Amino acid sequence: MSKHIGAVLGAALFSCVMGAAAAQDVELRSLDGTVELEGNLISYDGAFYRLDTVYGPLTVSAEGVSCAGPGCPDLATFVAETRIAGAATVAAGLLPDLLAAFASAQGMALDVETGPEGPVYILRRADGSPAARFAITPGSTDDGFLALLNGEADIALALREPSVAEIVASEAASPDDPPLDDRVRVLALDALVPVVSPENPIDALSLPDLARLFSGDVTNWQDLGGPDAPISLHALAPGFGLSQAFATRVLLPSEAGLSAQITRHEGAESLAQAVARDAYAVGITARSGAGAAHALPLVGTCGYPLSATLEAVKAEDYPLTAPVYMYLAPRRLPLLVRQFLAFTETEEAERIVGEAGFVNQLLTSTPLALQGERLSNAIRAAGEDVDLAELQHVVEVLGSAERLSTTLRFNPGGAGLDIQSRTSVSRLAAAIERGTFDGQQLIFAGFSDSDGSSTMNARLSLRRAGVVLDAVLAAGVARADRVEMTSVGFGEAMPMACDDTDWGRAVNRRVEVWVD
């Protein structure tokens, strides 16, 4: 007879039960020697043992026990191992800098070795022994999801959300585990931008223009107000997340197929170089990789220009914003890997994201007085449903406030916040907890598109603003009494884009956060 323990995740909590157990490969014993647990070691992550016992899988904190048996890990020399696969632009252009900064913050050195599928970044302790190995396999977003679903990667780097087929495959492989949408973090922001040579006189394109260009319906620049010259098309390889996002968000709504006359590139850098050298070329690529090519603003039929500025991408006002996702395996990652994931949300990491050419998620603010483009758009859009009194009401409420870069949007056709917005809610709640807005007022301002009556849209925008405010409070804000928070709905006032397209309406349906 021996005493056994039950364990809960994250704590060394023991409850004694009686029962016989056959000899197993490890035995965990409480430090006072009064209780024991035998089982097969499933994993050790640097902080917790995971055992398969007669009572099922149990997780036990290493701090409260000693380990005996042939399966016990060597705690002094334990190496955290993780495999990361997916988007090459992120794997090569951002991860190395983040790992170097994380190693420095841990007081460790960083070495790089060549592995069978890509670089292996090794974090070394002061004595030179390895503490962690991050094996990176650069490729496409498709590659990242495939490796994650096959159990060949712990983290997938993606520049798009998973497809229906990938979601179904994930649920089939692990029906009892959290869905992919609950195992995702937003590492940074990027955007899809049309690029031309600096010598090309075209100064803007619409989404329908892009669909006509890349479907092959338009083959001469003269049809778009440019010179009489043939158009050369450039795009990223099909497996890249941004390439797939372009097909889904631009070509599919226009019911356009992709032209066969497209030069494909295995990276944004080579695409930008090719386009910059050719006065009659046009490409669709990542904002972070536009290089010497000239990124064009998007324009609607009503004439509202939308450029992929840092502010517009951070607020998702630019319609082709593309978050950089990290999808995690449905298993507990080693402690040092979890600490790295936490580091990616720090201000130091956000600074590195910006220096690498991506858009970070640090909160910034802009006074209403410096938002001339959107004020101009609002005045031009004013009419029967949005009169001068409505615009005056906006200025009265927000005139002395500053708009935060956090902007919240909902999933198409649903009441739930999209992935990027859920991340933004968590970051905003954390900022409130840190005291960033103590003694100030946060205004959650809802806006709508122009579909339906202005009265209905005003109510809808107010309701959405309230949903976001409630989500922030539910995210763990314990200091809400030190910040005044209120919600207001402005309906279809202050449009960001034309309302005559699905993407324009989607951009206009939003909840902004203002601080006063």
From TrEMBL:
Signal peptide segment: 1-22
Keywords: Membrane, Signal
Domain OmpA-like: 397-516
Residues forming coiled coils: none
Pfam families attached to this UniProt entry: OmpA (PF00691), PBP_like_2 (PF12849)
Any one Gene Ontology cellular component term annotated for this protein: membrane
Nucleus is among the record's keywords: no
InterPro entries: OmpA-like, OmpA-like_sf, PBP_domain, Phosphate_ABC_transporter
Record flagged with keyword Signal: yes
PANTHER family the record matches: PERIPLASMIC PHOSPHATE BINDING COMPONENT OF PHOSPHATE ABC TRANSPORTER (PTHR30570), PHOSPHATE-BINDING PROTEIN PSTS (PTHR30570:SF1)
Name of the protein described by the UniProt record: Substrate-binding domain-containing protein
Organism: Gymnodinialimonas phycosphaerae
